[in-house]
Each structure stands twice: as C-alpha cells, then as structure tokens.
Write a structure and sequence with these properties.
Elements (H helix, E strand, L loop, with lengths): L10 H40 L4 H20 L29 H4 L4 H11 L8 H43 L3
Helix pairs in contact: 1-2, 1-5, 2-5, 4-5
C-alpha cells in the first residue's frame, strides 16, 4: 500500500505541481549562475585594473575567466547530455529506497518509464491511465536533468571563483 492510496487520485494536478517545481529549480539555478557570472566579470575587471603583475593575480584572472566561460555555457538549454562533459549526467543505475521524489537531483537518475511506474505507485495510481500523464512525467525528467546539469556547472564555477579568491587573498598577505 503506497502512502497516498487513501487520497483521491488527481495525477494531473500533482504532476503539474511537480513539473512547475522542476521548472523553478531550473530558473533558480540560472539566476544563481547569472549572479556568479556577473560577480566573476566584475571581479575580473577589478583585478585586471588593480592587481599587480605576478602569479597570484594571473591565476586569479584565469580562474575568473574560466568561471565566466562556464557561466555562459551554463545558460545554454542543456536539454541533451553533452558527450564531451560526462560528469554532468548523474549515474542512472544508482536507485536508492530513500530517493526523494520531489528533488531534481534524485528524479534525474530515473528514465521516463521508470519514473512513470514509480510515480504511479507514489502518487496513488492513475498516471499510466493516459499518455498525457506520461508526457508530463517525461517533461519532469527533462527539467530535473537540466536543473541537475546546471547545478553541477554552478558548483564548478563556485570552485573556480573560490580559487580566485584564494589567489587574491595571497596578493593581500604576500604582496609582490
């Protein structure tokens, strides 16, 4: 017996709510990427004008430039798996019983057909009744994967900006 079998099945409303949640996850991640990219651009201009020549300043500029390039790349749709960046895609064979079925990172692990069957049990049935509901699940999977890819790019950009901050900190404490 699933958790929600006592509820009146309304798969369309539930699926649309889940789809909107995945779309918000994509939008929120894009806002964070945009803010980090703008910060990296402003700091790159500041470092270029004010930092003395030397290895720490040069490394900071390289890291900030890479973060900017990664941020611009993260604004692409990312609807398909980029073959030249294999680490963006979550492993699909790791399904755990404690996966959260409203989290983009956990939903991205599933294929469309797996998620249809799982959500059919999770939401109390009715999803496999029409193709429309299955298409909604497909859109949920696509948006969850996009959000997951963009989050991974955001984390990498954060590491690059953090590395630049360490280089700038080295400039402050050990001036040339």
């Amino acid at each position: 017996m699933s958790i929600s079998t006592h509820l009146t099945p309304d798969p369309e409303r539930r699926l649309l709510t889940l789809l909107e949640s995945m779309r918000r996850a994509v939008g929120w991640t894009e806002k964070k990427i945009g803010a980090l990219t703008a910060f990296a651009a402003a700091q790159l201009a500041f470092v270029r004008v004010t930092a003395p020549a030397g290895p720490p300043g040069f490394l900071a500029m390289i890291a900030l430039g890479a973060a900017m390039a990664l941020g611009v790349f993260a604004f692409s749709p990312l609807t398909g798996k980029p073959g030249w960046i294999p680490f963006l895609e979550p492993p699909r064979d790791i399904h755990r019983s404690d996966d959260c079925l409203v989290s983009a990172d956990d939903l991205a692990k599933y294929s469309r057909s797996e998620l249809v069957l799982l959500l059919d049990q999770y939401l109390g049935g009715g999803i496999t009744a029409t193709r429309y509901y299955e298409d909604l699940v497909g859109q949920i999977v696509i948006n969850a994967r996009i959000a997951t890819r963009k989050r991974r790019l955001f984390r990498i950009a954060c590491v690059l900006v953090g590395l630049a901050q360490l280089c700038l900190l080295a400039l402050v404490f050990w001036p040339q």
